[in-house]
Amino acid sequence: MQTQSDMRDMTDNEKMEAFLARIDRGEKIEADDWMPDDYRNQLIKLISMHGISEIMGALPEKEWVPKAPTLRRKLAIMAKVQDEMGHGQLLLRVAEDLMAPLGKNREDLLNDLFTGRLKFHNVFHMEAPTWADAGVIGWLVDGAAIITQTMSLDSSYAPYARALHRICAEEKFHAQHGESIVLELAEGTAAQKQMLQDAVTRWWPSLLMFFGPPEDGQITSNQQQNMRYKIRTQTNEELRQAFLNKYVQRIFHLGLTLPDETIHFDEAANKWVYQQPDWNEFKQIVKGNGPRSSQRLRLREMSYEESKWVRDAILAYGRVAG
User: Fold this and answer.
1) Residues 196-209: pLDDT tens digits?
2) Which GO terms describe its biological process (predicted)?
3) Which CATH superfamily does the domain covering 35-321 fall into?
4) pLDDT higher than 50, residue 93
5) Which residues make Cβ contacts (< 8 Å) with residue 322, sequence separation at least 6?
6) Residue 133 · residue 61 · CB < 8 Å
7) CB 164 within 8 Å of CB 155
8) Where do the structural domains in the chain lie, given as residue ranges?
9) pLDDT confidence of 180, banded at 50, 70, 90?
10) From start to end of 30-178, where are the E strands?
11) Residue 113 · residue 49 · CB < 8 Å
């Protein structure tokens, strides 16, 4: 491994070659190691979006904390909301270390969120009008997240990989929580079964969009670069196919249908064939034009404003103690 002194004596091209060689050997990059600017920027973009999505993703389920049907369900969904907020804080801390050399901090990230520069996952712009939505979010949305996050468990950036190991362990419990709700509704009354079917139908296009647009046979430049840097190991479509492999038959097994009469597994191609969602709608949603985008962003902004006195008090105490 090159020391900082060694790196100072290298040209930019030599630094890049040494960096890529480290990654190819399976070595992990730490926050204080030398890294290319685009590696740092891609990590900041990915990890900050992931962290903000964890926080924003707690809001649809937060709506159901006071309305959960039993005390046990209320305690379970409260714990899940708390976990998701914790995941977001953990990831934003990882992003902060990357941003520090650029003179930026967590407050900059949140300002980027409030001004629309920082995006969050499309699924968390959507409505959750029934208890079945809480089940589908836990079972299928968190299931999709686990597939994406598992891909990055061996990320070349060590702080992100360490955070993901903790997050994925907790997300498995979240998926089990959602599956428990779904199974209870699937075995319930006719009205409960219909409520579940309506939720699955409502969420299906968003679930397909979760992994991002397909490449149409061409890996986009960002994906290609991130795979070269070993930040990610699979394309959007490969992740979507993994999701379909895991969940389509389970959905059908519960007696539910999908809003796609074309969906089937092509044995010859060894992949699922499905109806593409409206990717123009996807672009509008992530830009902040989704069904609940403005309400969720305003709620997050109000929470940030109302907790300002806590941050000020902590900073003041730190200055006195220091």
Assistant:
1) 999 999 999 999 99
2) phenylacetate catabolic process
3) Ferritin, core subunit, four-helix bundle (1.20.1260.10)
4) yes
5) none
6) no
7) yes
8) 35-321
9) very high
10) none
11) no
